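Lay summary. Proteins are chains of building blocks that fold into shapes, and those shapes determine what they do. In this project we predict the shape from the chain. Here is one chain we studied, written as its sequence of building blocks.
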Amino acid sequence: MVFFVYLVECRDGSFYCGHTKDIDERIKTHNSGRGGRYTRSHLPVKLVYFEKKKSRKSAMRRELEIKSFGRSAKELLVNGSEVNTK
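And here is the predicted shape, written in a compact code that computers can read:
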């Protein structure tokens, strides 16, 4: 089964990271106000980045890694640049 790690950009320019099995449905859920608590007050959101993972565990691990990034590292990720966080 395929899982996705995704990054959305909120109306105010902030980023939200999550993981899901169905990325299209998850973005719809966020924009309907039933997504993550953070995104409910920062609507609408738009998908700006995603990665495919082979397991939920690897998706969750990558989600935590991305959440630890600062804003500039997340912007590099969105722009397709290599991120070096070490």
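What the prediction tells us: Helices lie at 23-31, 37-40, 56-67, 71-78.
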